[in-house]
Structures
1.
Amino acid sequence: MRECFVCATCGTQYPPSAEPPEECPICLDERQYVGHGGQRWTTLAELGPAHRSDVRELEPGLLGIGTEPSFAIGQRAIHVEGGVLWDCVTVLDKTAVATIERTGGIHTIAISHPHYYAAMVEWADRFDARILLHEADREWVMRPSPRIEHWSGERARAGDSVELIRLGGHFAGGTVALWNGALLSGDVVMVVSDRDWASFMWSFPNLIPLPPREILRMRGVLETLEFDRVYGAWWERVMLGDAKAKVLRSADRYVRAVGD
């Protein structure tokens, strides 16, 4: 029997196969890691009985979709009114499907970087949606699909109200999205525990920093954007009020700390 196996550490789903893959390239990369127990695999069928979708309104027009209990990296996706899903999670259950269908469905899935590709093809097939990924991260697609469209350049539209901006940093194609004055940032711009500040890293779990020149380049892009809220990759990682100034001063603090 062929299954779409899922890496238990990063949550990435692989193409149908009779046996699990030998390894997960995303976890072997220095930006991620293989769990202490070694490479482990699961499937959506195995995850389903023990996990459920956690759907919450973040603000009018934005729904957060997480997984309870937490699985793999533990991020949550964001459904934007008008039919865009920002980032992705692995578990897809009846609760998430029913809620999304009531609020307009999904026509486009746009993802910040490969750690959140998750079960993007499963989601796209369920909602008959396209997937927008930056071409610079093409090599990290573990489950190919004709639904995937690789966009190029620095900006693209995911929908009438959602603009994608290549910010780089964490991955070459690292992307953020703008919607109605909110920056949807994944962890390309990481809202930290003191939510008046953000940070930027090449690897968060392995604590590998980005060079100051890359932070200054990213700061230059962020300075051109208009936003006053930031929604990061986890429920509590939200910056409300004067967010642009906070992000820019966070970039300045990072450069001072790392030095030339």
2.
Amino acid sequence: MEQVEVSNLDLRYQGYRMRNRHAEKTLLMSILEHGIRDPLEGVDTKDGRILLNGFKRYRCARKLEIGMVPYFSLSGDEVLGIVELLRIANSKSLTILEQAKWIDDLREVHGMSNAEIARVLEKSKAWVSVRVGMMGQITPYVMEKILAGEFPAYCYLYTLRQFMRLNSTRKEDVEEFVRLVSGKGLSTREIETIAHSYFKGSEELREQIKDGNISWALNRMKENGAVTSQCSQIEQALLRDLEIALKYMCRVISKNRDDRYRSNAFHAQANLLTGGLLRNVELFSVAARELHDRSGQAKGDLPPI
């Protein structure tokens, strides 16, 4: 570790790391009181020092007009430095999207194959393929918004990607949705609610969201919730069961193709459970169709979703 001038650090990879304004504000106060405790990390090349890790500390140092910062070189080679950063990702808490961004760089810029990346990182080919596939799904605009902290990574990973898998939603439609809701100060829960309305709701709701009437759409969803609360206790119980059934059906469909399920113990249990499901799937289908037809014929005051 050594002390280096903060102004001499190359920031070409700053856009590869996730921003978190709250965490950065907390870090700023800590540095103001205790200084920079952990060194920034990068690679020393013939063209200069390229920063790979510690961008929050860098920005805090600039704000506090700190000229010299502790620095540790991961390697004298750019590729080896990126590989080393990915190898210690568990302790450094790189998100899966950040990992995907670095792996895409190793493939597209430095010409490494999936097999080579898996070997040097001591990971499985499937681990690399998942992240490569993620980069194939996400548009540069959506990645930029997530890394800039303007759209929650959680909402993309666990809400929008599910629509892409199950409903054949195009990545261009996902990009349009991210464009509509980014920077609106919405909570993760509100974004998830709006996403369900946008991709699965009525055309009226979709058009209102496109026109920027997000508050109106959220209020409409709250009205739907209020109508549900008017149901009897036994009716609400069945509605909850239906929500749970739909949720877990979608989860099984999306997880089924993962090739990480390999152990004999898993296959033995999975075979028993799927056998039970298959024995009941026809009865479940009949019951669902009967309830769907019966509820469709009944009069109700539920607003269209």
3.
Amino acid sequence: MTEQQSSYRQIMKATSLFGGVQVFNIIIQIVRSKFIAVLLGPSGMGIMGLLTSAIGIIGSLTNFGLGISAVKDIAASNSTENVQRISTIITVFNRLVWFTGLFGTLVTLILSPWLSQLTFGNRDYTAAFIWISITLLLTQLCSSQLVILQGMRKLKDLAKANFLGSVFGLFVTLPLYYFMGINGIVPGIIGAACVTLLFSWFYSRKISIIPISVSPSQTITEGKSMLQMGFMISLSGFLSIGAAYIVRIFISHTGGVEQVGLYNAGFAIINTYVGLVFTAMATDYYPRLSAVALENNLCKQMINQQAEVAILILSPILIVFLTFINWVVIILYSKQFIAVNGMIYWAALGMFFKAVSWSIAFIFLAKGSGKLFFWNELITNIYLLGLNLLGYHFWGLTGLGISFAVSYFLYLIQVYFVSKIKFEFGFNPDFIKIFVIQFSLAILGFLSINYFDHAYAYFAGAVLITISGLYSMNELEKRLGLINIIRNYRNK
């Protein structure tokens, strides 16, 4: 097996592992979304979206990006196989997590009346923000356990923790929504956070860490690099969540809470059901890219490989969405949510640009270029926010889908040229060919569903899905040797 084929197989292995978890999460999300849509309606989904967005802003500011920055430090210490070094880094990390988690909770408690006023236009939800402030600590503690599993390369345990947290989180939240209706939203948010923390702790405790004494000065010294890199990540995260929060506030004040619920539902569909590739990127691809960060040629090769696999996997799925989204929305939610169809059509096209741009953008983190990462995200969020507000103002929910596609197209151009100048990056011919073919098929699917009668559109869509799927399978076979894998498995 060649080194290049081995690299492709590693990408597929991680994608399959976390893609499998994502499939189960999708099923869970389908059940949850259906119950929420029926029990709470668009208004309930809007309230939930506004609460979680507001808390997300506080979290992005107070968590100092430790959930991303610490992965590099833990992975580096793990590569030394020095138990004492590993234990020191994890001890320092855990201290920082407790500090940042408590800090986030305190900030939310203090700002709860103001958050309610800004988010809902009144102070009726002050108590809700007070109660869910505890989730800042719970979420940060959970994130720390998952980061340890990721940094130590315990990917199977990480997948199990994510999966079981989602399953049992569903069992906790649905009865609350059923018996309490909208009043069950806050207990549901807290309950889900507790459950996910429980399972992340259960699996992370399997990692043997020796008790070690770390002085305050050593904590500051060891934690400095985590905090410096994490602070820039935290600022960029704040910008992203803050921009999304402003959009939700604008929609709420312009179109009402129900429109916020529709907006949340639409992007939940497109993000959740194609999220397997992005989950694998964040979990496996980022540490692997970090390992070769000093070699620009290896970075270029790995980015192209990741982008190729991402497009080959996503394309048939996205064309399915373009063709059958009307039925998908009705099955997952209800006929009340059909208004999001136009938004999803455009967002599905935008996902092609997102998959490629994400593959490139991880190089900023892998290289440790915190300032470059921050400025890149700042510029992106400025035009993303502007396009979202303009899109909704002129074309409503469909305008938000258009702005999503345009923004990620601009983002792709941006990260490509920055990476080309700074890190000698470029696309190889194989990737360009794959992208042009699959994106062309998606464009045809988009045109057919918008300009053909339903019967002809479904037929054309089915043909395009078949072509896209067969092409993806053929290209993956060239890179992975799937037939040989199956033969070897049978022989065993």
4.
Amino acid sequence: MKGGRFIASVPVTPSMDANPYHLQDFTASSFRKMFINNGLVEIDSFIQKQHYKPLFLFRKKYRQSKNIRLALVNYYLKNPGKFFLRIKSFFKDGFTNKYLVVVFENPGDVGL
């Protein structure tokens, strides 16, 4: 298919620890690379920021808390690298989740 566009959004701050449905943590670079290696060209991108208050995550009334991994301590014990990734993210971004939104284009017939 020639000239098709694909718009993708992905968290680029750690998310596997708090969201059991996320199977991969991406960086902006690793996410872009996946598409560029398959012949797509980046047209545009931006970062969405979602600030959060960490103590609210554990309140029952917090609407997103049902999706947060309940056994977070056990998860970190089994995946210590993810704990250090979260700490690094905290020092870099504070209490902010970042999402990369990218528009890719298929510049020609590359078999996609």
